[in-house]
Design a protein that fits this description.
alpha/beta; Rossmann fold; 2 domains; six-stranded parallel β-sheet; five-stranded antiparallel β-sheet; 21% strand; elongated; NAD(P)-bd_dom_sf; XdhC_Rossmann_dom; MoCofactor_Util/Proc
Length: 349
């Protein structure tokens, strides 16, 4: 499953390539509450068809109405992007379904060759972070290597946005927990890779849209070279496999590295990685274990939810100590009744 930005770019390129007039809409700035953050993309073609979104729906309806009534030129000039602001007044906020006090500023541009959307799409597919500088006077776009998650900026002459590669989740171990994690991760727009060299575990495991590999975990991590948009989670409970992945992942740029297991197993893993593999304290401090946020989960699906919540929080820059980790939650929670979750009990989040 593609992330929304890539889907918008791909669809806009397809429409433009087929001869349709296309308007690309970018959320440039917001004030107060807003349904979509700055940088969000939407495209509208000359038939009024859309992909992506910039609000809860009412702003989209107004833009589609403008295009259907007067064509693309009614929304923006062919060679000059247009800046629109919605929600300034209480009446507009009510009319366009914006939250109370919410204001959103949009930049609309007519897609052309100088928009360079094809090159931008290719950069996203090749996992290259890209800065796009749109000249508001000419509609010309300049692309260059950019930050992973830059905040859009708008002044009188330029709109600057950043598009990074899709978030990617690498799972070590094929099983029920991996299946739930894959489903959740793909619904959140992640690319997903599942690695399991054990043929008996991998033989009956498949899922549409997921890359499954039988490489040894360390070989996979070395090949993928995890970047700052990659998370790695070890799920096998087998140190011979999990540790191989963790050794290299903890020394990579991955934004999240975690492993399931009990608190005791997690402590033993840290000691093992330090003593036998000479990992530094700084590298070990990056390891999230037991992986996940504490939500009292017992089933594989609940554990997957716990882990994905922590992965998404890390992706979005939430500081780990502001969250209730599994380790901290379990140390603070004393339950008089012990529930068994079979082989997942040790990983229960």
């Amino acid at each position: 499953m593609e992330d929304l930005d890539t889907l918008v770019l791909r669809t806009a390129c397809d429409w433009y390539g087929s001869g349709l007039a296309v308007v690309l809409v970018t959320v440039a700035r917001t004030w107060g509450s807003s349904p979509r953050p700055p940088g969000s993309l939407m495209a509208i073609n000359g038939r009024g068809e859309t992909v992506g979104s910039v609000s809860g729906g009412c702003i989209e309806d107004d833009l589609i109405h403008q295009i259907r009534e007067g064509g693309v030129q009614a929304a923006c000039a062919p060679d000059r992007p247009t800046v629109l602001r919605y929600g300034i007044s209480a009446d507009q906020a009510h009319r366009f379904g914006l939250p109370c006090g919410g204001t959103v500023e949009l930049v609309l541009e007519s897609v052309a060759a100088h928009s360079r959307l094809g090159e931008l799409l290719a950069a996203c597919e090749e996992r290259r972070s890209t800065e796009r500088r749109l000249n508001l006077r000419t509609g010309q776009a300049i692309l260059r290597q950019g930050l992973r998650d830059g905040v859009p900026s708008l002044d009188g002459t330029h709109l600057i946005t950043w598009l990074g590669p899709k978030a990617r989740l690498v799972l070590i171990g094929a099983g029920d927990l991996a299946r739930y994690l894959c489903q959740m991760a793909m619904s959140l727009g992640f690319d997903v890779v599942v690695c399991d060299p054990r043929e008996d575990h991998r033989a009956s495991w498949s899922m549409s849209g997921v890359q499954v590999t039988h490489e040894m975990p360390d070989d996979l991590i070395v090949r993928l070279k995890p970047d700052a948009r990659t998370a790695v989670v070890a799920l096998t409970h087998d140190p011979k496999l999990d540790d191989l992945a963790l050794i290299d992942a903890l020394q990579s740029d991955a934004f999240y590295v975690g492993a399931i297991g009990s608190r005791r197993n997690t402590a033993q893993r840290r000691e093992r990685l330090k003593e036998h593999f000479d990992l530094s304290d700084a590298s070990l401090a990056r390891l999230r274990g037991p992986a996940g946020l504490y939500i009292g989960s017992k089933t594989p699906a609940e554990i997957a939810l716990s882990i994905m919540a922590e992965v998404v929080a890390a992706k979005n820059g939430i500081v780990a100590h502001d969250l209730m980790s599994v380790e901290r939650g379990k140390s603070q929670t004393q339950s008089p009744v012990r529930h068994s979750a079979g082989p997942f009990a040790l990983a229960a989040a």
